[in-house]
Amino acid sequence: MSSRQPSSLWVPRVDSLTEFGLLISRQLTQCRRYGGHLAVLWLEACPLEHEGGRREQGCPEAAAAAAAAAGTARAPDANELMNAVGRRVRGRVRGTDMVLQVGENSFAVLLLDAGGFEAGLVQQRLMHALNGPYGVGDGVQHVGLQMGTAVFPDGGVRGADLAESARGDLRKRMSRAAANT
Length: 181
Fold this sequence. Notes:
Residues 1-7, 54-58 and 60-74 have low confidence and may be disordered. By secondary structure, the protein is of the alpha+beta class. A hairpin with a 2-residue loop joins strand 5 and strand 6 (139-151). Helix 1 crosses helix 6 and helix 4 packs across helix 5. It has 6 helices and 6 strands. The protein starts with 12 loop residues before the first strand and ends with a helix.
């Protein structure tokens, strides 16, 4: 059996919010021109030590900084895990939606013809679908997920602004969750 991924489940990767903004500029122009709806769902996936466990130290920022300081690349299993998360996200949204990996542990889902209500439904569905185990390498791994949303034009009129608004929503949700525990 070939180790190549089916092209329909391949998730492109960008390294910055600026690159993300450039990639979605065409969709934003069409929304402005024709009065369309668009939402961005931002996901951060962090490897867990075990199911229901805690996040690895300071993931993802501290882990990336530690790897950079040590002059090492991410472990192959970490790359495989994020590829598996990306494929699962791609498989759980509509074919017309765009899924991008942004950096090491983040994903942006561009939901076309969707507002806040639809983005909330997709978020609930993805939270359920993505929290399962991932067969990676010779074992099973789990991820901790956080999600936030932003809707055009309220969340911003540029792609990077929408992504930053969705990340801000994610941080607010994390703060509320921490305050409730």
